Amino acid sequence: MSEPSYKTIEDVIGQTPMVRLQRLPGAANAARGNVILGKLEGNNPAGSVKDRPAMSMIRRAEERGDIRPGDTLIEATSGNTGIALAMAAAIRGYRMLLIMPEDLSIERAQTMKAYGAELILTPRSGGMEYARDLAEQMQREGKGRVLDQFANADNPRVHYETTGPEIWDETQGRITHFVSAMGTTGTITGVGRYLKEKRPGGVRIVGAQPAEGSRIPGIRKWPEAYLPRIYDPAQVDELVLVSQADAEEMARRLAREEGLFAGISAAGAAWVALQIAEQAENATIVFVVCDRGERYLSTGVFPA
């Protein structure tokens, strides 16, 4: 009898399920033939869509000989990438230094530490821009290697190779709209490129960005100097602004009306998907549920 083949944590990243919203779209959308689907990236082992690029960036850097186990890795993060990199570093044997603004949720910081990462907290006033500058400074000082999710081609590449094909297959090629929150822009760039190649002109790629004055974890509108180098605007057809109030209310509604406990940026993408559906007919709209709601319990978004 042959030995059973057991999977590792790394092996179960990706192939996440997709679910149909049932109550939020309402009867009118059903009558117009619209379907709204959420891709449950919170089902990844470290709990977010960032598991894919985190493992991709480390594995491919190893293949190129850029890093090797025992090295120190550095990354500026708003949370999910840091958690995913902390997991990946634990799997592959790296010291992980994560730089993040001090106002991000307690749950995220605690989860990173649970994986063995070391945290460097930066002032809230500096935002992610300050954290990114500090990471680059530490690399120049020889304190470690920055993977740089914002400029690393292995980020969108993994979405082109895995997330996009999964969505295409799960909808049997019926997808008409793809909606993603925009942070590092790796997801929307990689998935957008794949879907546009599969059906040129037939899939509309829509990015969710925060409205003026809104602070939505995981969604950013970057100043020009900090725009991620991996971002390819040719892959994005439309940008929709989401208010913090709308994203937070949608997070509560997803949990209460759909049983879908999602993070705030995922809820922002869901809000955009529902707006699209109001104007569409016979549409198959997919949005990324990039993480789970447990990471936001301390923020007060969900009632105690």
UniProtKB/TrEMBL annotation:
<dbReference type="InterPro" id="IPR001216">
    <property type="entry name" value="P-phosphate_BS"/>
</dbReference>
<keyword id="KW-0663">Pyridoxal phosphate</keyword>
<keyword id="KW-0028">Amino-acid biosynthesis</keyword>
<feature type="domain" description="Tryptophan synthase beta chain-like PALP">
    <location>
        <begin position="9"/>
        <end position="291"/>
    </location>
</feature>
<dbReference type="InterPro" id="IPR005856">
    <property type="entry name" value="Cys_synth"/>
</dbReference>
<comment type="pathway">
    <text>Amino-acid biosynthesis; L-cysteine biosynthesis; L-cysteine from L-serine: step 2/2.</text>
</comment>
<dbReference type="InterPro" id="IPR005858">
    <property type="entry name" value="CysM"/>
</dbReference>
<keyword id="KW-0198">Cysteine biosynthesis</keyword>
<dbReference type="GO" id="GO:0004124">
    <property type="term" value="F:cysteine synthase activity"/>
</dbReference>
<dbReference type="InterPro" id="IPR050214">
    <property type="entry name" value="Cys_Synth/Cystath_Beta-Synth"/>
</dbReference>
<dbReference type="InterPro" id="IPR036052">
    <property type="entry name" value="TrpB-like_PALP_sf"/>
</dbReference>
<keyword id="KW-0808">Transferase</keyword>
<dbReference type="InterPro" id="IPR001926">
    <property type="entry name" value="TrpB-like_PALP"/>
</dbReference>
<protein>
    <recommendedName>
        <fullName>Cysteine synthase</fullName>
        <ecNumber>2.5.1.47</ecNumber>
    </recommendedName>
</protein>
<comment type="similarity">
    <text>Belongs to the cysteine synthase/cystathionine beta-synthase family.</text>
</comment>
<dbReference type="Pfam" id="PF00291">
    <property type="entry name" value="PALP"/>
</dbReference>
